[in-house]
Amino acid sequence: MQEKILSTGIDIGTSTTQLIFSRLTIENLANSYSVPRISIVDKEVIYRSDIYFTPLKSQHEIDASKVKEIVAEEYKKAGFKPEDLQTGAVIITGETARKDNANEVLSALSEMAGDFVVATAGPDLESVLSAKGAGTDKISKERALNIANIDIGGGTSNIAAFSKGILKGTVCLDIGGRLIKISNGRITYIYKKIKELAERNGITVNEGDYADEGVLRRICALMADQLAQALHLMQPDGFHQAMYTNGGKTFNDDLQISAITYSGGVADCVYNENGSDVFKYGDIGVLLGEAIKNNALLGALKKFQPEETIRATVVGAGTHTTDVSGSTISYSKENLPIKNIPVLKISEAEEISEESIIKTIKEKLPVYYTEQKLDIVAIALVGESYKSFVDIQRLANAIVTGAKEIIDGPHPLIIIIESDVAKVLGNSINLLLNRSKDVICLDSIHTNNGDYIDIGEPLAQGNVVPVVTKTLIFNS
To answer: Within 13 A of 292's CA, how many CA atoms are on the CB side?
Structure first.
């Protein structure tokens, strides 16, 4: 039997703000005599909003009330109310995530977001969502290719690389169409890194200067070269590492890309003819798109047309943020839904013994104190080495011993395990505690340190719960 849930994606980006509504279909794919295997089998976008310029009060502050007005108006046009939604995401992306009042914007939207719509940000997540919204992962799988999607927005370029459908890594660079702004023929804003990139290559450019198309084309060519360097298509120059957002990570040296897709607002300028007015958007977006199109190294890659360009991130947010747990799970229904649960991840190396698990939990729990009290936290493991009933009993003992502070506190004991043993593990923990503590034990969910999760109300006759894995860490 199929079950349909309604999801939304709201993307507040450097240049644009937009939202979608989508319908996700979940179904039990197992036969009548097997353990239920619930999966999301269909994702359909049923409403796309207009695309708005993200309202700003200044270079450093988003206009939260105007963003809320935009979202409220689009809900009305779509014919939905917040209480109609079961899942989704609010994504503050690119340079907008670095604005002084990003958290205030999320607070302003909270009442519009329904009971289980989450607030997320972070360049790694944005890279994956935009690539999935563009369909790059599917192209990679269907054609057995090593392919990258570059999502070029107003403030950042988020890159996700796939090999035969498997994610190989993500990076984010401070390259975007609104990092130089133009009004009345003059440059009104230059992002500091772009100014330094130009100066290091002998180009002097300042706010207030005449917007010389030739000079700006040279700068955009340098920006395109930085993208080529990120994909290991050319040797990195001395400034390349500084171009990564927050000095972030680069791709592994063994990355070999043979094909490419582009998404984001600038992607339209890569794929389409742009006309004679190169400053029609009040920035260098058109010139950057043309520079990327004309870059010989990027041009040597096989180029595919994505399913989405400017809407890729918001489509990804509305259709790819939600996962469903495995069917062999254990939970206390009265505790659900729960939002914004930080993850205490025990690495595979730390799972080497029960003593190591106990020690790791006890050492990491103080990180999750708020005002000298332990807040809610989920303990996450891989659990691959705990397969037999005896092994799971030993794991249950280790968790109960290490998590004594959680057990003695007011919050439920939440365990997230990747291997398919949650029901047995949850029952073992319940027996050890004489069912005196609410225990939620979910499997088939992948998490990392720094993640947060939302756990929704049970679906599919209670066989699974929807889980959103996210990060609430804003770029600084």
So the answer is: 28
